[in-house]
Amino acid sequence: MILDTPSRNLRSKRIAPSLLACDFSELGAQVREAQAAGGDWLHFDVMDGHFVPNLSIGLPILEATRKHTTLPIDVHLMVQNPERYFEVFAKTGADHITFHAESTAHAHSAIQQIHLLGKKAGMTINPGTPLEFFKPVLADLDVALVMGVNPGFGGQKFIPQTLERLRQLRTWRDDLNPNCLIQVDGGVNLENVGMIARAGADVLVAGSAIFNSAGIAHNVNLFRNQLSKLSDGNA
Ligand code: DX5
Ligand code: ZN
Question: I want to staple 117 with a disulfide (CB 3.0 to 4.6 A). Which of 50, 90, 128, 185 is the partner?
Answer without folding.
Answer: 90
